[in-house]
Amino acid sequence: MILLVSSNKDVASLNIANQIMLYHPFQKVFGEFQNNPVYSAVFNQKTVTLIRLNEESVNAQNLPEIFPDAELIVFISRHSSQSGIPTLTVHPPGNFTDAEFGGLPHTVSVSPAVAMSNALKMLVFFQQKFELFDYEVSFEVTHHGPSLNVPTMFVELGSSMQQWNDSKAVCAVACATLSSIETFESKPVQNAVIGIGGTHYNRKFTQMALNGEVVFGHMIPKYVVADLDVFMLRHCVDRSFEHISEVLLDWRGIRSEDKSRLMSVLDESGFTYRKI
């Protein structure tokens, strides 16, 4: 079962969920979750359960215990930024350091690399189909909660109220999300990589994924590198749905004062790595 999650505290999330139910064969099922109705549909022989939270999505730490059959958890969510740039983004959740915004400290969710790459490609497809040319499509690095032991990703619409209520953009996220769900395989089908370096929106990693060169699991930005140790790097590799074949370094996107220490961490970890 694939769990699709929206939140009553999130305008964009509710708009995307409503769009999904309007144009796809979701049916109300028996029972409720947090006093909200639960819906179900079948896509490409996969059962998809759609729920609504009464809390912020970043705090939904107990979902795997409540839905133990979930093989993939997908949060449809708003994206917020001070810049207000219209964006369509995908990322895995988790915390490299403290848990300031939900989840657990020093704990990341299991990253579904192929599903995230498929969602990213579908966001580009529907961005073009709906002529959303002022929107940027990008990976975001791993950040915020929850920290789940199930493959988990966020598909987001940003970055302000104007975009959260943009019907074409809402439709693009809804369609991209369902398209990525339809192609999800319950067993890993290829290797993935870990990305280190660059900004919160890594253009290099995004373009490599769109070109089909690699699929990315967790992505660690330059502002975390100073705190990265062997334990956390191994944790990111272990918390990947696909097998991690190597670590890719956005070398120019790593601060010079952090490079020597990072190389020591990589050498101690024993993982294969290369600079890009």
Attribute tags:
alpha/beta, 276 residues, single chain, 4-stranded parallel beta sheet, 32% helix, 14 strands, 28% strand, 9 helices, 8-stranded mixed beta sheet
Layout of helices and strands:
Blueprint: E1 2-7, H1 11-23, E2 27-33, E3 36-43, E4 46-53, H2 63-66, E5 72-80, E6 87-91, E7 94-95, E8 107-108, H3 113-129, E9 136-139, E10 152-159, H4 161-164, H5 167-182, E11 192-196, H6 203-210, E12 216-220, H7 222-225, H8 230-238, E13 244-249, H9 256-269, E14 273-275
Parallel strand pairs: 1-4, 1-5, 5-10, 6-9, 11-12, 11-13, 13-14
Antiparallel strand pairs: 2-3, 3-4, 6-10, 7-8
Helix pairs in contact: 1-5, 3-5, 8-9
Give me the strand/helix succession. Answer: EHEEEHEEEEHEEHHEHEHHEHE
Helicity range:
25-40%
Q: What's the number of helices?
A: 9
Main sheet attributes: strand count, strand direction, barrel closure: 8 strands, mixed
Outline type: globular
